[in-house]
């Protein structure tokens, strides 16, 4: 499949089977991430591969965020249901370099590009994925749970699995409606 086909056909797929994902496939996904463009080759990404009981690390962090530092059995149970939606989750964080010549926002952009590369590789492998984020993802307690630096920030959780069905359709606003051509 061409890159153009991948870009146009990749969809967020939340309903996946619990089949294990081969290590070789996971490594291909991670490899795709590290080839994202990044200013001055800072490579500001950090990946956490969560499988099996390893997904409980994310469940505990989600429960902690929900309870503002306190974990209840109810919040932990709810969080476990969320992380059990897929057999594999790759948590992706940014660790901006400490260099006054590097614009921190560009570090975030590089990691978002890494996530897009990973999503395209996942699609190429015939797997399904959904990129989840939101307030709990960006919360200070999430960063602490994953031992990120003071400047580090979790940017997303990629839930990955074998799709239950693969007939997702989507539409986009034509680019002409979102584009301004400046020629003079």
Automatic annotation (TrEMBL):
It comes from the Bacteria. Residues 7-161 form the Nitroreductase domain. It is an enzyme of class 1 (oxidoreductase). Gene3D superfamilies: NADH Oxidase. Its EC number is 1.-.-.-. Its cofactor is FMN. Keywords: Flavoprotein, FMN, NAD, NADP, Oxidoreductase. Belongs to the nitroreductase family. PANTHER family: NAD(P)H NITROREDUCTASE YDJA-RELATED (PTHR43821). This is Putative NAD(P)H nitroreductase. The lineage of its organism: Bacteria, Bacillati, Bacillota, Bacilli, Bacillales.
């Amino acid at each position: 499949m061409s890159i153009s086909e991948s870009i146009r056909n990749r969809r967020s797929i939340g309903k996946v089977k619990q089949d294990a994902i081969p290590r070789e496939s996971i490594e291909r996904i991670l490899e795709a991430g590290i080839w994202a463009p990044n200013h001055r080759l800072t490579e500001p990404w950090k990946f956490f591969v969560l499988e099996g009981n390893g997904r409980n690390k994310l469940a505990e962090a989600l429960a902690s965020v929900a309870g503002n530092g306190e974990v209840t059995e109810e919040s932990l149970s709810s969080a476990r249901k969320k992380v059990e939606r897929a057999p594999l989750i790759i948590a992706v964080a940014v660790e901006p370099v400490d260099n006054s010549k590097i614009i921190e926002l560009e570090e975030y952009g590089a990691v978002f590009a890494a996530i897009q590369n990973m999503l395209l590789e996942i699609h190429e492998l015939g797997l399904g994925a959904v990129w989840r984020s939101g307030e709990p993802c960006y919360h200070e307690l999430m960063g602490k749970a994953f031992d990120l630096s003071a400047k580090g920030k979790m940017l997303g959780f990629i839930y990955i699995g074998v799709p239950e069905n693969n007939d997702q359709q989507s539409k986009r606003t034509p680019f002409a409606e979102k584009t301004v051509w400046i020629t003079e």
